[in-house]
Amino acid sequence: MESFDISYFTPRHDTSTKEIPISSELVQDEHDISQLPFNNVTWVSSHNSAANDFAAGENVLLQMATNQKYSVYTQLKTLGVRGLMIDLEFKQDTLQLVHGLLSFGTFKDLINYEIIPFLEEDEDAIITIDIETLGNRADIMRELRLILGNTPALTSRIFRLQDERWDNYKEWPTIQEMRDADQRVLILSDSTIVSSVDLGVNFRWNLVLENHWLGGLDSCSNRIEGFEHLDIPWHYRTIFPRPWSRLFTMNHFCCGSGIESLPRVQPDNIGGGDNGWGILYPRVQMCQEANGYDRKPNYVSVDWSHLGMVVLILSLSLLLVYFF
């Protein structure tokens, strides 16, 4: 009988998490936000979530292209990350998690061995998967449809805006309502081709606005990459199928690669580094002023989510909503 490694069928997580400077007890208890509408909460997103040191392993080339330290499972489970920003490309007959030309595994494995196990362990967690697409979008969509069709443990939990239970809602449902419906996975895509009402994959620019990361942390210009002709004002509400408030992703990373950003996020830097509250909060204020509508971020996207104060954003969500 052929032997196999049972660890392959368990969640892919890191064993070296002792240095994470926060315990799960310090991350906000998510039931505290249960009565808030989804659009009134601020979540931590990890930029290039799948491009992490754990996935890179001993591959030096991959190590140089990482933006996160820990596996996606550990980001979710231990750090309190709730937004996953990933790049997908169909190559070598599979849907791969990429950063530039490099691959950090497959989307299928990410779902089966990291995302689904976490969702089953934490029945309160609501996550967002924000997909950037590279290469042939039709190939990506075809493979995505196959993968989702074979992972009911994920697809049954996808938040579906067209669901009739939201018909009379004038605004996003509350966190508890999304939990009760077990619709706890919001999926966004940057491509109209890689979007589908029946799959629950939403065209990003129908629901979200975000600032451009170009220009570093000294600017907060609108970003609708590839769809600039839409020229969507900050205050416009969502497009099909619900006229709800738009979500706002605040990209809060300085550079094109994690190697560039790593020296800037060190907590002993001025302001606690780029992920420190001394730099993060003024950036929130800058973006609120730039968008002209006092829009607070729903997602704060960062490199190296294990460093700095960013892991405390969840516990500061109520402060962002009510006081600032």
Q: Tally the beta strands.
A: 11
Contiguous uncertain segments of 5+ residues: 1-9, 21-27
Tell me, what is the CATH class?
Alpha Beta
Please indicate the percent range of residues in DSSP E strands (runs of 2 or more): 15-25%
**Overall shape:** globular
Relevant CATH superfamily? Phosphatidylinositol (PI) phosphodiesterase
**Kindly, what is the distance between the CA atoms of the first and last residues, rounded to a whole number of angstroms?**
62 Å
Mean pLDDT: 85
Class from secondary-structure proportions: alpha/beta
Count of DSSP-assigned helices: 11
Number of domains: 1
Looking at the overall shape, the CATH architecture is Alpha-Beta Barrel
Question: What oligomeric state do these chains adopt?
Answer: single chain
What is the CATH T-level topology? TIM Barrel
Q: Write the H/E string, N to C.
A: EHHHEEEHEHHHEEHEEEHHEH
Compute the CA-based radius of gyration. 19 Å
Largest sheet: number of strands, sense, barrel closure: 11 strands, mixed
